[in-house]
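This section describes the prediction task in plain terms. A model, or a person checking by hand, is given the sequence of a single protein chain and must write out its three-dimensional structure as a string of C-alpha coordinates. No templates, partner chains or ligands are provided. The sample shown here is typical of the held-out split.
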Amino acid sequence: MDTCPADLTIGFPRESGTERRTILTPALARALIGAGFSIVAEPGIGSRVFIGDEEYAAVGVQLTEPGRVWSAPLLLRYKSPDPDDLERLRPGQHIAALFHAEGDIDLLTALQVCGASAWSYEFVSENGRFPLGRPGGQIAGVQAVLAGAHALQTPDARGVLLAAVDGAAKANVVVIGSGNVGAAAAKTAASLGANVTVLTRGEPSHADYLRRAPGGVRVQVNSRETLLECLAEADLVIGAILVSTYDTPAMITEADLAMMRPGSVIVDATCGYGPGYLPTAGPVQPPGDPPHQTAGVLHVKVDVLPALVPVTATAAYVTNATPYMERLAKTALLGTPDTAIEAARIACAGRLVHPVLVQHARIYGLQP
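The expected answer:
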Protein backbone atom coordinates (compact mmCIF):
# COMPACT_ATOMS: atom_id res chain seq x y z
CA MET A 1 0.00 0.00 0.00
CA ASP A 2 1.41 3.38 -1.01
CA THR A 3 1.70 6.12 1.58
CA CYS A 4 1.75 9.84 0.91
CA PRO A 5 5.12 11.47 1.60
CA ALA A 6 5.16 13.97 4.43
CA ASP A 7 4.76 17.62 3.50
CA LEU A 8 8.08 19.08 4.58
CA THR A 9 7.19 22.73 4.01
CA ILE A 10 8.07 25.25 6.70
CA GLY A 11 6.37 28.65 6.62
CA PHE A 12 7.90 31.84 7.98
CA PRO A 13 5.30 34.62 8.45
CA ARG A 14 6.37 38.19 9.08
CA GLU A 15 6.45 39.28 12.71
CA SER A 16 3.63 41.28 14.28
CA GLY A 17 3.49 44.98 15.14
CA THR A 18 6.77 46.73 15.87
CA GLU A 19 8.85 43.55 16.26
CA ARG A 20 11.98 43.90 14.12
CA ARG A 21 13.72 40.60 14.84
CA THR A 22 13.24 37.56 12.61
CA ILE A 23 13.94 33.86 13.06
CA LEU A 24 14.65 33.41 9.33
CA THR A 25 18.13 34.28 8.13
CA PRO A 26 19.72 33.05 4.90
CA ALA A 27 21.98 30.79 6.99
CA LEU A 28 19.02 29.11 8.70
CA ALA A 29 17.21 28.73 5.37
CA ARG A 30 20.29 27.12 3.86
CA ALA A 31 20.54 24.66 6.75
CA LEU A 32 16.87 23.66 6.63
CA ILE A 33 16.81 23.31 2.85
CA GLY A 34 19.97 21.22 3.08
CA ALA A 35 18.16 18.95 5.54
CA GLY A 36 15.38 18.32 3.01
CA PHE A 37 12.78 20.93 3.96
CA SER A 38 11.11 23.50 1.69
CA ILE A 39 10.90 27.11 2.88
CA VAL A 40 8.14 29.60 2.10
CA ALA A 41 8.20 33.10 3.57
CA GLU A 42 6.44 36.42 3.29
CA PRO A 43 8.29 39.10 1.31
CA GLY A 44 10.10 41.58 3.56
CA ILE A 45 10.50 39.12 6.41
CA GLY A 46 14.05 40.31 7.06
CA SER A 47 13.74 43.93 6.00
CA ARG A 48 13.73 45.28 9.56
CA VAL A 49 17.16 43.79 10.19
CA PHE A 50 18.41 44.78 6.73
CA ILE A 51 18.20 41.34 5.07
CA GLY A 52 16.86 41.77 1.52
CA ASP A 53 14.48 39.42 -0.25
CA GLU A 54 17.13 38.74 -2.86
CA GLU A 55 19.35 37.20 -0.17
CA TYR A 56 16.61 34.73 0.71
CA ALA A 57 15.81 33.92 -2.89
CA ALA A 58 19.50 33.21 -3.54
CA VAL A 59 19.46 30.31 -1.05
CA GLY A 60 16.17 28.82 -2.26
CA VAL A 61 13.47 30.49 -0.14
CA GLN A 62 10.15 30.85 -1.96
CA LEU A 63 8.71 34.29 -1.22
CA THR A 64 4.94 34.15 -1.44
CA GLU A 65 1.66 35.59 -0.16
CA PRO A 66 0.65 35.26 3.52
CA GLY A 67 -2.15 32.73 2.93
CA ARG A 68 0.25 30.15 1.52
CA VAL A 69 2.78 30.78 4.27
CA TRP A 70 0.19 30.35 7.03
CA SER A 71 -1.09 27.10 5.48
CA ALA A 72 2.31 25.36 5.82
CA PRO A 73 2.30 22.33 8.12
CA LEU A 74 4.97 23.95 10.32
CA LEU A 75 5.27 27.67 11.04
CA LEU A 76 8.32 29.22 12.65
CA ARG A 77 8.41 32.75 14.07
CA TYR A 78 10.67 34.69 16.38
CA LYS A 79 8.01 35.99 18.75
CA SER A 80 4.54 34.67 19.46
CA PRO A 81 1.82 35.60 16.99
CA ASP A 82 -1.09 37.70 18.17
CA PRO A 83 -4.04 35.63 19.43
CA ASP A 84 -6.03 36.68 16.35
CA ASP A 85 -3.33 35.23 14.09
CA LEU A 86 -3.80 31.80 15.63
CA GLU A 87 -7.30 31.75 14.15
CA ARG A 88 -5.58 31.10 10.79
CA LEU A 89 -4.39 27.69 11.99
CA ARG A 90 -6.12 24.36 11.72
CA PRO A 91 -5.76 21.14 13.72
CA GLY A 92 -2.76 19.19 12.57
CA GLN A 93 -0.55 22.22 11.97
CA HIS A 94 2.45 23.06 14.13
CA ILE A 95 3.72 26.47 15.19
CA ALA A 96 6.82 27.41 17.14
CA ALA A 97 8.00 30.72 18.57
CA LEU A 98 9.15 32.41 21.75
CA PHE A 99 5.59 32.29 23.05
CA HIS A 100 6.03 33.24 26.71
CA ALA A 101 2.30 32.54 26.87
CA GLU A 102 2.11 32.01 30.62
CA GLY A 103 1.10 35.57 31.43
CA ASP A 104 -1.41 36.04 28.60
CA ILE A 105 -4.92 34.63 29.06
CA ASP A 106 -5.93 35.57 25.51
CA LEU A 107 -2.98 33.69 24.04
CA LEU A 108 -3.61 30.65 26.23
CA THR A 109 -7.22 30.58 25.10
CA ALA A 110 -6.27 30.99 21.44
CA LEU A 111 -3.83 28.08 21.67
CA GLN A 112 -6.68 25.90 22.90
CA VAL A 113 -9.20 27.07 20.32
CA CYS A 114 -6.99 26.71 17.23
CA GLY A 115 -6.28 23.04 17.88
CA ALA A 116 -2.73 23.19 16.51
CA SER A 117 0.39 21.87 18.22
CA ALA A 118 2.57 24.65 19.58
CA TRP A 119 6.19 24.71 20.71
CA SER A 120 7.93 27.45 22.70
CA TYR A 121 11.67 27.80 22.20
CA GLU A 122 12.41 28.92 25.74
CA PHE A 123 11.38 25.49 27.06
CA VAL A 124 13.77 23.44 24.90
CA SER A 125 15.67 21.54 27.59
CA GLU A 126 18.86 19.52 27.22
CA ASN A 127 21.20 18.26 29.95
CA GLY A 128 19.36 20.33 32.53
CA ARG A 129 19.82 23.57 30.62
CA PHE A 130 17.72 25.76 28.34
CA PRO A 131 20.02 26.38 25.35
CA LEU A 132 17.64 28.66 23.45
CA GLY A 133 17.44 31.00 26.42
CA ARG A 134 21.16 31.69 26.29
CA PRO A 135 21.47 34.36 23.56
CA GLY A 136 18.54 36.48 24.76
CA GLY A 137 19.72 36.06 28.35
CA GLN A 138 23.23 37.18 27.52
CA ILE A 139 21.95 40.24 25.69
CA ALA A 140 19.52 41.10 28.50
CA GLY A 141 22.30 40.75 31.09
CA VAL A 142 24.57 43.17 29.24
CA GLN A 143 21.73 45.62 28.67
CA ALA A 144 20.62 45.44 32.30
CA VAL A 145 24.01 46.75 33.36
CA LEU A 146 23.96 49.44 30.68
CA ALA A 147 20.43 50.46 31.74
CA GLY A 148 21.55 50.57 35.36
CA ALA A 149 24.60 52.63 34.43
CA HIS A 150 22.35 55.13 32.68
CA ALA A 151 19.88 55.25 35.59
CA LEU A 152 22.71 55.98 38.03
CA GLN A 153 23.39 59.17 36.06
CA THR A 154 19.84 60.55 36.21
CA PRO A 155 19.10 63.58 38.43
CA ASP A 156 17.70 61.68 41.43
CA ALA A 157 20.28 58.88 41.35
CA ARG A 158 23.56 58.43 43.19
CA GLY A 159 25.61 59.89 40.36
CA VAL A 160 28.03 56.98 40.36
CA LEU A 161 29.89 55.87 37.24
CA LEU A 162 30.09 52.08 36.89
CA ALA A 163 33.42 52.24 35.12
CA ALA A 164 36.52 52.49 37.31
CA VAL A 165 38.18 55.90 37.39
CA ASP A 166 41.47 56.74 39.11
CA GLY A 167 40.90 58.55 42.37
CA ALA A 168 37.24 57.49 42.82
CA ALA A 169 35.86 54.54 44.73
CA LYS A 170 34.63 51.66 42.59
CA ALA A 171 30.89 51.17 42.18
CA ASN A 172 29.34 48.19 43.95
CA VAL A 173 27.14 45.92 41.85
CA VAL A 174 25.07 43.02 43.19
CA VAL A 175 23.71 40.41 40.76
CA ILE A 176 20.99 38.09 42.04
CA GLY A 177 21.23 34.92 39.95
CA SER A 178 24.03 33.18 38.06
CA GLY A 179 22.23 31.91 34.93
CA ASN A 180 22.51 33.33 31.42
CA VAL A 181 21.30 36.80 32.43
CA GLY A 182 23.17 37.00 35.70
CA ALA A 183 26.46 35.70 34.32
CA ALA A 184 26.39 38.21 31.44
CA ALA A 185 25.52 41.04 33.83
CA ALA A 186 28.36 40.13 36.17
CA LYS A 187 30.87 39.87 33.32
CA THR A 188 29.81 43.25 31.93
CA ALA A 189 29.93 45.05 35.29
CA ALA A 190 33.28 43.48 36.15
CA SER A 191 34.76 44.45 32.78
CA LEU A 192 33.80 48.06 33.51
CA GLY A 193 35.78 47.89 36.73
CA ALA A 194 32.99 47.66 39.33
CA ASN A 195 33.12 45.58 42.47
CA VAL A 196 30.72 42.71 41.66
CA THR A 197 29.00 40.23 43.95
CA VAL A 198 26.91 37.40 42.48
CA LEU A 199 24.35 35.71 44.72
CA THR A 200 23.52 32.15 43.66
CA ARG A 201 20.40 30.14 44.41
CA GLY A 202 22.16 27.39 46.39
CA GLU A 203 25.36 25.41 46.83
CA PRO A 204 25.15 23.54 43.47
CA SER A 205 24.76 26.75 41.46
CA HIS A 206 27.45 28.37 43.63
CA ALA A 207 29.93 25.63 42.76
CA ASP A 208 28.95 25.68 39.09
CA TYR A 209 29.25 29.44 38.66
CA LEU A 210 32.42 29.73 40.76
CA ARG A 211 34.27 27.67 38.12
CA ARG A 212 33.45 30.19 35.38
CA ALA A 213 33.13 33.50 37.23
CA PRO A 214 35.34 36.36 35.99
CA GLY A 215 38.37 37.13 38.10
CA GLY A 216 37.63 39.39 41.05
CA VAL A 217 33.89 38.63 41.16
CA ARG A 218 32.74 37.58 44.61
CA VAL A 219 30.31 34.61 44.60
CA GLN A 220 28.06 33.83 47.57
CA VAL A 221 25.00 31.70 48.22
CA ASN A 222 21.96 33.93 48.52
CA SER A 223 20.67 33.94 52.07
CA ARG A 224 18.55 36.56 53.76
CA GLU A 225 21.47 37.78 55.88
CA THR A 226 23.88 37.90 52.93
CA LEU A 227 21.37 39.71 50.71
CA LEU A 228 20.74 42.43 53.29
CA GLU A 229 24.47 42.96 53.77
CA CYS A 230 24.94 43.34 50.02
CA LEU A 231 21.97 45.69 49.62
CA ALA A 232 23.40 48.07 52.22
CA GLU A 233 26.55 48.60 50.13
CA ALA A 234 25.09 48.39 46.61
CA ASP A 235 24.97 51.16 44.05
CA LEU A 236 23.31 48.86 41.50
CA VAL A 237 21.33 45.65 42.00
CA ILE A 238 20.50 43.40 39.02
CA GLY A 239 17.64 40.95 39.60
CA ALA A 240 18.32 38.01 37.27
CA ILE A 241 16.57 34.94 38.65
CA LEU A 242 15.34 32.52 35.99
CA VAL A 243 11.63 32.35 36.80
CA SER A 244 9.41 34.87 38.55
CA THR A 245 5.72 34.11 38.66
CA TYR A 246 2.62 34.98 40.65
CA ASP A 247 3.59 32.84 43.62
CA THR A 248 7.30 33.74 43.69
CA PRO A 249 7.98 35.21 47.16
CA ALA A 250 9.33 38.73 47.44
CA MET A 251 13.12 38.84 47.68
CA ILE A 252 13.50 42.59 48.22
CA THR A 253 10.65 44.26 50.09
CA GLU A 254 9.88 47.93 50.54
CA ALA A 255 11.19 47.71 54.09
CA ASP A 256 14.52 46.48 52.69
CA LEU A 257 14.85 49.59 50.55
CA ALA A 258 15.29 51.68 53.70
CA MET A 259 18.74 50.20 54.25
CA MET A 260 19.89 50.87 50.69
CA ARG A 261 21.87 53.90 49.66
CA PRO A 262 19.72 56.84 48.53
CA GLY A 263 19.62 57.03 44.76
CA SER A 264 20.81 53.46 44.26
CA VAL A 265 19.26 51.49 41.39
CA ILE A 266 17.51 48.13 41.05
CA VAL A 267 17.12 46.65 37.55
CA ASP A 268 14.65 43.79 37.15
CA ALA A 269 16.27 42.04 34.19
CA THR A 270 13.89 39.09 33.87
CA CYS A 271 10.49 40.77 34.39
CA GLY A 272 8.36 37.78 35.35
CA TYR A 273 4.61 37.53 35.76
CA GLY A 274 2.76 39.10 38.66
CA PRO A 275 4.48 41.03 41.48
CA GLY A 276 7.24 38.41 41.66
CA TYR A 277 10.42 38.67 43.66
CA LEU A 278 10.97 42.44 43.15
CA PRO A 279 7.53 43.90 43.91
CA THR A 280 8.88 47.41 44.53
CA ALA A 281 9.86 47.63 40.84
CA GLY A 282 6.19 48.14 39.95
CA PRO A 283 4.77 47.53 36.47
CA VAL A 284 6.84 47.04 33.33
CA GLN A 285 8.07 50.33 31.91
CA PRO A 286 8.20 51.29 28.23
CA PRO A 287 11.77 51.76 26.93
CA GLY A 288 12.92 55.32 27.49
CA ASP A 289 10.68 56.00 30.49
CA PRO A 290 12.42 57.40 33.57
CA PRO A 291 13.13 54.97 36.41
CA HIS A 292 10.31 54.30 38.89
CA GLN A 293 11.13 55.50 42.42
CA THR A 294 10.18 53.80 45.66
CA ALA A 295 11.60 54.88 49.03
CA GLY A 296 14.41 56.79 47.37
CA VAL A 297 15.58 53.83 45.27
CA LEU A 298 15.30 53.94 41.47
CA HIS A 299 13.85 50.94 39.64
CA VAL A 300 14.19 49.92 35.99
CA LYS A 301 11.84 47.21 34.68
CA VAL A 302 11.91 46.89 30.88
CA ASP A 303 10.92 43.49 29.46
CA VAL A 304 11.98 44.05 25.83
CA LEU A 305 15.69 44.71 26.23
CA PRO A 306 16.93 42.33 23.47
CA ALA A 307 14.29 43.73 21.10
CA LEU A 308 16.06 47.09 21.28
CA VAL A 309 19.06 45.59 19.44
CA PRO A 310 17.29 43.53 16.75
CA VAL A 311 20.28 43.09 14.42
CA THR A 312 22.45 41.69 17.21
CA ALA A 313 19.59 39.66 18.68
CA THR A 314 18.62 38.09 15.36
CA ALA A 315 22.20 37.07 14.54
CA ALA A 316 22.98 35.69 17.99
CA TYR A 317 19.68 33.89 18.44
CA VAL A 318 19.51 32.23 15.04
CA THR A 319 23.17 31.14 15.10
CA ASN A 320 22.53 29.37 18.40
CA ALA A 321 19.09 28.05 17.42
CA THR A 322 19.79 26.63 13.95
CA PRO A 323 20.49 23.02 15.00
CA TYR A 324 17.43 23.05 17.25
CA MET A 325 15.23 24.43 14.47
CA GLU A 326 16.24 21.46 12.30
CA ARG A 327 15.50 19.05 15.16
CA LEU A 328 12.15 20.71 15.84
CA ALA A 329 11.19 20.43 12.17
CA LYS A 330 12.06 16.73 12.15
CA THR A 331 10.04 16.13 15.32
CA ALA A 332 6.99 18.09 14.13
CA LEU A 333 6.91 16.96 10.49
CA LEU A 334 8.54 13.52 10.59
CA GLY A 335 7.74 12.39 14.12
CA THR A 336 11.40 11.99 15.02
CA PRO A 337 11.67 11.38 18.80
CA ASP A 338 13.63 14.11 20.55
CA THR A 339 13.23 14.65 24.30
CA ALA A 340 14.83 18.11 24.24
CA ILE A 341 12.30 19.29 21.66
CA GLU A 342 9.35 17.52 23.29
CA ALA A 343 10.09 19.49 26.46
CA ALA A 344 9.14 22.62 24.50
CA ARG A 345 5.69 21.44 23.41
CA ILE A 346 3.14 23.74 25.06
CA ALA A 347 -0.11 22.77 23.31
CA CYS A 348 -1.41 19.75 21.45
CA ALA A 349 -4.77 19.36 19.71
CA GLY A 350 -6.54 21.98 21.79
CA ARG A 351 -4.93 21.07 25.12
CA LEU A 352 -2.29 22.94 27.07
CA VAL A 353 0.35 20.34 27.94
CA HIS A 354 3.34 22.15 29.42
CA PRO A 355 3.19 22.27 33.25
CA VAL A 356 3.99 25.99 33.42
CA LEU A 357 1.11 26.86 31.08
CA VAL A 358 -1.21 24.44 32.85
CA GLN A 359 -0.44 26.19 36.14
CA HIS A 360 -1.17 29.62 34.70
CA ALA A 361 -4.32 28.45 32.95
CA ARG A 362 -5.69 27.30 36.30
CA ILE A 363 -4.78 30.63 37.87
CA TYR A 364 -6.93 32.26 35.18
CA GLY A 365 -9.75 29.79 35.73
CA LEU A 366 -9.19 28.02 32.39
CA GLN A 367 -9.49 24.28 31.91
CA PRO A 368 -6.12 23.17 30.46
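For orientation: The chain has two domains: 9-130+310-363, 133-307.
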